[in-house]
Design a protein that fits this description.
Shape: globular
Largest sheet: none
Structural class: mainly alpha
Radius of gyration: 19 Å
Number of domains: 2
Mean pLDDT: 76
Strand content: under 5%
Order of helices and strands: HHHHHHH
Length: about 150
């Protein structure tokens, strides 16, 4: 038997509209800017009581708040995950190991974060060749990336 409390934990997005309404009521007209970097933290252990994927739930709230307020959002998962899921062969070269990026992968993250913040794309080391632009083109097949910013700031 699943209790109400357990079913609420299993489907956290059900309460998203209620949480957003509470947040809006408490914050009034104050201005906020949200910036979030992806993380798939999960509570694993005897104490977790089924709270797996809480970071995913929090990401849903952050995305919804950013959309509703027009705040800038650095959402690395929305750019990297579709690429990883659809084109593993092209994604694998940016990884040092299953969890860590090579410098080219870090450059991708930094480039996209910079675009969200209104910065032009950096100059990449000459020995990388077209690696970063090619990866950005690959990523854009699976996700809508932030547009490049003009060099004039």
């Amino acid at each position: 038997m699943v209790t109400r409390k357990q079913s609420q934990r299993m489907q956290p997005t059900v309460h998203l509209p209620h949480l957003l309404a509470d947040w809006r009521a408490q914050c009034g007209q104050r201005s906020f800017r949200w910036v979030a970097f992806g993380s798939r933290n999960t509570e694993l252990g005897w104490h977790s009581e089924g709270r797996h994927g809480w970071a995913c739930w929090l990401s849903c709230i952050i995305r919804a708040v950013a959309r509703s307020t027009g705040a800038a959002l650095i959402d690395q998962y929305s750019w990297f995950l579709p690429w990883q899921q659809h084109d593993v062969a092209a994604y694998r070269p940016i990884l040092r190991d299953p969890m860590h990026l090579k410098p080219v992968g870090n450059a991708l993250m930094g480039t996209l974060a910079g675009r969200v913040c209104g910065l032009p794309d950096p100059e990449y080391p000459p020995d990388w060749g077209p690696a970063v632009p090619e990866c950005l083109a690959n990523m854009s097949r699976w996700a809508t990336l932030p547009a490049p910013v003009s060099e004039e700031i």
